[in-house]
Specification:
Strand content: 15-25%
CATH architecture: 3-Layer(aba) Sandwich
Helix content: 25-40%
CATH topology: Rossmann fold
Radius of gyration: 16 Å
Largest sheet: 6 strands, mixed
CATH superfamily: Phosphoglycerate mutase-like
Low-confidence stretches: none
Mean pLDDT: 96
Order of helices and strands: EHHEHEHHEHEE
Number of helices: 6
Number of strands: 6
CATH class: Alpha Beta
Number of domains: 1
Strand order of the largest sheet: 3-2-4-1-5-6
């Protein structure tokens, strides 16, 4: 496997905020989320496991018996003042602005462009170390990674559906490629 990076992006399982339609906080998996992760089954052996710093990503990694390296670039999108809020409590105009303008961050947190740039930087850094790795992260980060490797416009962010406990496989050898599972 010389020179090839095989990167599995593993989305954490369901959380209370996800099931309630709220912007996330640093929370653990629900019982449903734990069952989703158990249903993933065994993954191929890996050389390295990375995870975002949040409880839900660490718990997902630990469910596989892994002690992940924590990488802050795998953190969820910063939702600023919207963290923990229900979607129904957000001013509709602000929500529309944020979902249609990738440079906008009306919540005082991170814009989609900033997330995509952070994710692109992370992908560039992991592309230099051949081997098999898993990164346990968030649907937003996985969307940003897909947009980056496909050179797709940021406006396509919301068109990618990443489900809890899903896997996305990326391969790097002379550039990133997306492989379906």
């Amino acid at each position: 496997m010389s020179g090839i990076v095989r990167l599995t992006l593993l989305a954490h399982g369901m959380t209370e905020a996800m099931s309630a339609g709220r912007f996330p906080t640093d929370e653990p998996l629900t019982d449903v989320g734990v069952r989703q992760i158990r249903a993933v089954g065994d993954l191929d052996p890996v050389d390295r496991v990375l995870a975002g710093p949040e409880a839900r990503t660490r718990q997902t990694a630990q469910s596989f018996g892994w002690t992940p390296e924590i990488d802050p670039r795998l953190a969820d999108l910063d939702y600023g003042s919207w963290q923990g809020e229900s979607l129904t409590r957000i001013e509709p105009a602000a929500l529309q602005q944020w979902t249609t303008d990738p440079v906008s961050a009306p919540h005082g947190g991170e814009s989609l462009i900033a997330l995509i740039e952070r994710t692109a930087d992370w992908l560039d850094s992991v592309s230099r170390t051949p081997g098999r790795m898993v990164a346990v992260t968030h649907p937003a980060v996985i969307r940003a990674a897909i947009l980056t490797i496909l050179a797709a416009p940021a406006e396509s962010f919301w068109r990618i559906d990443i489900t809890p406990a899903s896997r996305t496989l990326l391969l790097h050898r002379h550039g990133w490629k997306l492989r379906t599972l």
